[in-house]
Amino acid sequence: MIEGGVWKLGRDIDTDLIIAGRYCNISDPAELAKYVLEDLDPNFVKTFKPGDVIVADNNFGCGSSREVAPLTLKAAGVAAVVAPTFARIFYRNCINIGLPIFEILDVAKDFEKGQRISIDPGTGKVTNITTGVTFQAAPFPAFMQKIMDAGGLVAYAGEQLGGT
Amino acid sequence: MAMTMTEKILAAHAGLSEVHPGQIINAKVDLVLANELSAIVAIEEFSKIKGAKNVFDPHKIVIIPDHFTPNKDIQSAKVAKKVREFALEHNTLYYEVGRMGIEHVLLPEQGLVRPGQLVIGGDSHTCTYGALGMVATGVGSTDIAVAWALGEVWLKVPPTIRIEFKGKKKPWVSGKDMILYMIGRLGVDGAIYSAIEFCGEGIAELSIAERLTMANMVIEAGAKNGVFAVDAKTEAYVKAATNQPYTVYTSDPDAEYAQTIVYDMDDIEPQVAFPHLPSNTKPISQVGDVTINQVVIGSCTNGRIEDLRIAAGLLKGKKIHPRVRCIIIPGTQKVYLDAMKEGLLETFIQAECVVSTPTCGPCVGGHMGILADGERCVSTTNRNFVGRMGHVTSEIYLASPAVAAATALRGKLADPGQL
Ligand code: SF4
């Protein structure tokens, strides 16, 4: 069960905003986490609490393929991202690295910053604890669920190669 | 079952007789591209895959350090060093500084991407190669690591949106203006998860360079890939680049499209995308008075010789505006050399532009032209997100090489037809 404070972001949050290109020659996620969402809100990193959840509007993670974007969010302690739609490369990167994401149509308008949210990753049930309203996330296709169950794509590929 | 080009190419690489949108497939890849930024993360992931010692096929893996090279600082040099060592150890295709160019200009030029292929790259603009009648799409570093090991990638078959450009180009309109126009109408997520198939008279008349520019920016509408039918121009381009074989796929006449959209070329004039989204477009006649500090002509979108020819044509015998810095970046060493032989470099230098070695440089906010607070740049690149090219309060206006060159002369957004 995921439970935390809500961070509300708008639509089309691009990967340059999540982690700016000027930091992309850094590969240590903990170091990158110091600059997460810096160009959107320089105070984000100071006030965000590990375990909090981002609720955003359409097309979260658009732009570059940089996998450091979800890696940075994960390293900063973002427990999950909930949005109506995700940009496709960001979406697959999250599946592959194990950052929990949940697609829920029309979710953005029902959440405000500072509310509390709970998510059951098993069932995809999302609750706005503050208002009591519940939502159902779209289920993952079976193949993606298999990757996540294996612990990410790297572990899944290891199984394919018969590695132990 | 009738299928689109994208569906046929995906089916062939998944070993299936047919596929349908929404289906998840495991497909064999013909080429796996990485730049130094995606490779550095992929190398780490590759080392974690149990049982993976060697890459699946070193001839199908290409690594190109182009983003922060020639290295801009110690940190970038360390990244490039690790990536170089991996490439050498596994004997992959690798283009060192001096041979490298911006990846999406280099691969078509080198004949490494060809009709009918399935190519993935650790870079969102991998979609560029769809211009040559293939399926090419960007993925993340973990996908790259796994494709290095297995030679396969999991993909969801996208629905296809068919976009027809009816009629012929007006003067000074280029492929860049057509794709900006399209993104302005579709929005940055208008084609999310989808393939875009381009067709119509407006597309047939385009050069391969312009088709590469258009395919390059389909990701800016959220698309997975963009695809163009193979015609005589495609075949001539590919045959000049390589003698390797290729396969031509065509969409069935009764294939199913998620949507068909028709744009009339008569409605399209040169376009400018205002800050801070590529969809924030205006026709050049309506841009108003926007003074500019810097102009960048280059990148995987518009760093080809055809682009430099257009810019040089406008700049020849003139000086750029005294308050403007104009940075020209040929996409590859070959483009650089051709520009030299054709006298374009001299034109640029006489016009008081600066000419850089091939690099992504300012496009990714790395180096070679970073913007200070409040500065404005007209750029032939593909993204004008907040802070993309420097300070968070700087502004990027996306345009064609012609509009960029006209703007460099005038010091403010300018219509090349009105010089
Ligand atoms: S030129 Fe810009 S968009 Fe193209 S690959 Fe380089 S950084 Fe990416």
Secondary-structure blueprint:
The complex is a heterodimer of chains A (164) and B (419).
Chain A: E1 2-8, H1 15-18, H2 29-32, H3 44-47, E2 53-55, H4 68-76, E3 80-83, H5 88-97, E4 101-103, E5 116-120, E6 125-128, E7 134-136, H6 142-150, H7 153-160
Helix pairs in contact in A: 6-7
Chain B: H1 5-14, E1 24-28, E2 31-35, H2 36-48, E3 61-64, H3 74-90, E4 93-94, H4 103-109, E5 118-122, E6 135-138, H5 141-150, E7 152-156, E8 160-166, H6 175-186, E9 195-199, H7 201-204, H8 208-216, E10 225-228, H9 232-241, E11 259-264, E12 271-273, E13 281-283, E14 294-297, H10 299-302, H11 305-315, E15 325-328, H12 333-341, H13 344-350, E16 354-355, E17 376-379, E18 395-398, H14 401-410
Helix pairs in contact in B: 2-3, 2-5, 6-8, 11-13, 11-14
The structure holds iron/sulfur cluster (SF4).
Iron/sulfur cluster binds at residues 67, 102-104, 123, 125, 299-300, 360, 363-364, 381-382 of chain B.
Q: Roughly how much helix do the residues of chain B carry, as a percent range?
A: 25-40%
Q: What's the rounded overall pLDDT mean of chain B? A: 97
Radius of gyration based on Cα positions of chain B: 20 Å
> Which overall shape of chain B is indicated by the principal axes computed on the Cα atoms?
globular
* Biggest sheet strand line-up of chain A: 4-3-2-1-5-6-7
Structural class call of chain A reads alpha/beta
Report strand % of chain A: 15-25%
Write down how many β-strands of chain B occur, each being a DSSP E stretch of 2 or more residues. Answer: 18
> Cα distance, first to last residue of chain B?
53 Å
User: What name is given to the CATH topology of the largest domain in chain B?
Assistant: Aconitase, domain 3
Unreliable stretches covering 5 or more consecutive residues of chain A? none
Return the structural class of chain B. Answer: alpha/beta
CATH superfamily of chain A: Aconitase, domain 4
Number of helices of chain B: 14
* Average pLDDT reading of chain A: 93
